[in-house]
Amino acid sequence: MKDSITLDKYCIKWINGTALYPNDDPEQAKCHINIGLFYSEVYENVHTNKTMVCSSNNQLFLIILKYLQCSINFVRSSEDYGGRLIDGQWTGILQQFARNESDFIGHIFAIVNGREKVIDQTYLMPNKELISIFSFTKLPRFYDNPFRIFECFTLFIWILIALSLLITGAISSVIIMKNDRRLWFIKIIASNIDSFSLLIGQSQRQLMSTSLMSTSLLFWLIGSFILRQLFSNDFTAILLSKQYKKIDHFDDLFQLPSTYRIMLEPNSSTKYFFSKSFPMLMDRVEYYSHIDIISIHMLDNLIVDDYVLIINTERALSLKEYYPSTHFHVSNDVMIPTLSTYAIRSTLDNKNREPLLRLLKSLYYYGLMKYVDRRLLLNHLRAEAEDALFHIVYKAKKQPKTVVLSGQTILTFIYFYVIGIIISFTLFIFEIIYLKFLRSKWEISTTSETIGTRIVSI
Q: What residues form the membrane-spanning segments (predicted)?
């Protein structure tokens, strides 16, 4: 691993209960902010007794410390989710606001579930809290949709092909009815199966019917040859093409097989809005913790098994950005639940609240907020380590498996096709030999009868 990738570079050293001051000088502090942290944003090394803040918002915390000249102290929560009001009590990290333990939380919160009672609403950001579907773009199994072969032609072409078959069947029916006055379905089938034998050794009595059938069969053979030359490559392309299955809309979740599972973070705003909008899909939901929902185990589930992840759009884009060589996909369709804002305690005094509001407005106005948000929730060290591990899992486990399964399925159909051709050709050869044997026998019998007749005449 690179020497530059260290915890000291991407995390903030912190001693529990000790404040950080601008330039390590308490006299330079113009304000003081207690920053609330999720449980997973604090890293404790039991071997070195170091406690470090490893959050995607570390840069924002440093801006507050160095640019606003505010002293900061971190307050670690025992929870990893935002929280809501239940029976008059706040859950999650928002308990800190209710207890006046923290002043600011460096994450965007949707204003729902009565959060306006504890979160300042002076500066709201519209359409900031977006929810998307994060999935792995998979190759569909060949047997998922066998009717995909009909995508090769347009409806008009298929109508012409069906019409040609009907015309051929009609010609066969007319000839059969002309010969024996009876039309049996089995005879129509037999005439198609034995169509090649119609060109062999017909008597003079059936000269007209043979001529008609030979002509129609000749046109049919020529037409089939032309169709094969024109469209055989299209059929092959349809069978062998890598048609990816992308999930771009929330309505697509209803079209997925029942084996698909939906991953959600419990007690989160994402889970709240998804359950309100799609309660009929909640029986497919599996819950993952705040830290596990973007872990290697989750990514492996998305690739290998039938899983999709419902997650904040910014986090989804960050995951896709950190794994650019994969086929992860963020849906085009997003849910826009409500207005949102960075969480500032509503009862915070103006001396400390005003600098925070000015900072957040400036970051949003100049487009710097997006850069801060697009950082993965975990620190860069963990992101790069998981990226390397993910590529090992992806190359060794999933990619060859997909190619082998698709190839085996197509080869199976090719083998059946070749076996069918061999059987048909063998039967055709035996039929020719049998007809020649009958003709030779008939000629010998005719010759014997002629000789016998001449002898009797003599």
A: 155-177, 183-200, 212-231, 414-435
Strand partners, 309: 134, 263
DSSP state string for 252-295: HHHHS-TT-EEEE-TTSHHHHHHHHH-GGGGGGEEE--TTGGGS
Measure the N-to-C terminal CA separation of the chain; round to a whole number of Å: 112
Both structure tokens of 344: 């500032």
Segment 243-273, tens digit of pLDDT: 556 788 888 888 888 888 899 888 777 887 8
- Looking at the domain assignment, is residue 431 inside a domain? yes
pLDDT band at residue 70 under the 50/70/90 scheme: very high
Most confident of 72-86, 154-168, 333-347: 72-86
Cβ neighbours of 351 (radius 10 Å) = 10
360 Cβ neighbours under 8 A, 6+ residues apart: 123, 341, 342, 369
Residue that the structure tokens 């399925």 belong to: 409
251 with 330, same domain: the answer is yes
Residue 386 lies in a domain: no
CATH assignment at residue 115: 3.40.190.10
Domain span at residue 113?
7-126+339-378
C-beta of residue 321 within 8 angstroms of C-beta of residue 96:
no
Verify that 231 and 256 share a domain, yes or no.
no
DSSP per residue over 63-88, as a string?
HHHHTS-EEEEEEE-S-SS---EETT
Q: Assign residue 387 a region: left if phi > 0, alpha if psi is -120 to 50, beta otherwise?
A: alpha
Helix H or strand E encompassing 209: helix 207-240
Q: What mean pLDDT do residues 107-126 have?
A: 82
Between 401 and 176, whose confidence is greater? Answer: 176
Task: Please tell me whether residues 315 and 372 are part of one structural domain.
Answer: no
| pTM score above 0.70 | no
User: Helices 350-365 and 58-66: crossing angle, nearest 10°?
Assistant: 120
Residue 82 lies in a domain: yes
* Residues 185/193, Cβ–Cβ less than 8 Å: no
The C-alpha atoms of residue 436 and residue 209 are separated, in whole angstroms, by 21
Q: Would 190 be classed as within a structural domain?
A: yes
- Is residue 56 domain-shared with residue 11, that is, in the same domain? yes
What's the pLDDT tens digit per position in 309-318? Answer: 998 887 888 7
414-448 pLDDT, tens digit per residue, is 555 556 556 666 666 676 677 677 777 776 776 66
pLDDT on residue 223:
56
